[in-house]
Amino acid sequence: MHERLSVHGIAFLGASLVELAAHWQALGLRRLTLIDSQLFEPGLPQLIHGNDYAVEAVCHVFASGRLSTDVTDVRAARDDLSRVIDASAAIGARTIYMLTGGRGRLTWEQAAEHFSASVAPCLREAEQAGVTLAIENANSLYADIHISHTLRDTITLAEMAGLGICIDLFHCWAEADFAALVQRALSRTQLIQLSDYVLGDRALPARAVPGDGAIPMEAFVTQVLRGGYAHAFDLELVGPRIEQEGRSEAVQRACKAVTAMLHRHTA
């Protein structure tokens, strides 16, 4: 297992803490990415610290998935994020990456400005706690809970809000001028998520084990490493292909494939 490889907790969504621990041990993991709800599992801090795990990132949906201009709702969204910041800091998590919440009737520009203003106090909290806040790119099918779908829009929003970036390769690999976008994003990039796509697959979320599909992943990994990217490569594996193969088997195979790839390009 390459030391810069992490596995996203969504791969084992619904597993108990005991079951998660067994998966992590079987895979030989040292780095993890968690869903925010997993932070509040009794015994998680002891499990993390007792086994010397590094928590690379935590996923959080801001504002419970719905941007609101109501003062009470904004306060509640900030309070929720503050709790996630505190819990993340307690286990040494490095980054919280977010979905912004859906924009409803707001224009993209209005929603971007509102999200940036809403999250600003939490950005200061996170800095004081030693945690980085970031946003990811996610398919427009998730417009009900997010406003940042292309990598270009994610960069724009991150620059507006002073946030980091999580690049989910699955959702942006086919964009025009992709290499230039990646280069622009790299200085803010806190996490890179890897999974593959088999052309023609419409069985959402349609993720595949790296190496099984059409994404030119090795060229991307080569670019970001040469560009100075210093953080983890996170495997986010979910969907019918993963379930059909078996979660453990698919994740194990993905770990081997990406470990080999990283060894080819890192000392």
Q: Report the strand count.
A: 8
Element-level helix/strand string: EHEHEHEHEHEHEHEHH
**Helix content range of the residues, please?**
40-55%
Strand content: 15-25%
Summarize this structure as a short list of keywords or feature phrases.
single chain; 43% helix; 267 residues; 9 helices
Overview of the molecule:
- This protein is of the alpha/beta class and 267 residues long.
- It has nine helices and eight strands.
- The chain has an eight-stranded parallel beta barrel with strand order 1-2-3-4-5-6-7-8, surrounded by four helices.
- Helix 1 (17-27) links the parallel strand 1 (5-8) and strand 2 (31-35).
- Helix 3 (71-90) runs parallel beside helix 4 (108-129).
- The protein is globular.
- It starts with a strand and ends with a helix.
In short:
It is built from nine helices and eight strands. By secondary structure, the protein is an alpha/beta fold.
Compile the SSE list and pairings:
Elements: E1 5-8, H1 17-27, E2 31-35, H2 44-50, E3 54-61, H3 71-90, E4 95-99, H4 108-129, E5 132-136, H5 151-161, E6 164-168, H6 178-185, E7 189-194, H7 217-226, E8 233-235, H8 240-245, H9 247-265
Parallel strand pairs: 1-2, 1-8, 2-3, 3-4, 4-5, 5-6, 6-7, 7-8
